[in-house]
Specification:
Layout (H helix, E strand, L loop, with lengths): L1 E2 L4 E6 L4 E7 L4 E7 L4 E6 L4 E6 L4 E6 L6 E4 L4 E6 L4 E6 L4 E7 L4 E7 L4 E6 L4 E6 L6 E6 L3 E7 L4 E6 L5 E5 L4
Length: 183
């Protein structure tokens, strides 16, 4: 869990729901993603424009990658990490094997949060400032479509089994449901 005001994340035991450790990360952590296969934790730090990479077994900081914003999402099948950069309207791609920046992709205005469908290799980005959702085809770098118009999209989640995208609205308390979003 990201603790935005004290620049840490809390590690919570899912069986007891108690905090078992606290790890210092960059300034203003907002997004957290975990790769269950490698037990690596990625934290987007909005205040320092860095992504912290943490070893989930030892709770130690492994690396700081010089990209960061609000959101982070992970494709566990391909071990790729996607980080939104709201200040420059891009998404950074981090290779989870090397924890190094691999690519930067231009998306819509003010991307905030992301979701990955590992079955279709599509990455969805909520562009809060542009009222759109961008779709990035993970198979073909820099291929972006911005074909979903949704007012103030914010949080995203995807059900890979049904290929359904869920989009929360920042202002209207609405949840949009998009079945079979096109790439």
């Amino acid at each position: 869990m990201a603790n935005n005001h004290d620049n840490t994340i809390s590690v919570i035991d899912g069986k007891t729901n108690s905090v078992v450790n606290t790890v210092t990360v960059g300034k203003h952590p907002t997004g957290v993603a975990v790769n269950p296969a490698t037990d690596m934790v990625y934290v987007a730090n909005d205040g320092s424009n860095m992504t912290s990479v943490i070893d989930g077994k030892t709770y130690t900081l492994v690396k700081l990658v010089p990209v960061g914003g609000s959101g982070v999402a992970l494709d566990p099948n391909r071990n790729m990490v996607y980080v939104s950069n709201a200040r420059d309207d891009t998404v950074s791609v981090i290779d989870g094997k090397t924890n190094s920046l691999e690519d930067t992709i231009i998306v819509g205005n003010m991307p905030v949060f992301l979701a990955v469908n590992p079955m279709t290799n599509m990455i969805y980005v909520a562009n809060n400032g542009g009222n759109t959702i961008s779709g990035i085809n993970g198979n073909v770098k820099n291929t972006v479509t911005t074909n979903l118009l949704i007012q103030h999209p914010y949080g995203l989640a995807v059900n890979p089994e049904t290929n359904t995208l869920y989009v929360s609205n920042h202002d209207l308390n609405v949840l949009y449901v998009v079945r079979n979003p096109q790439s």
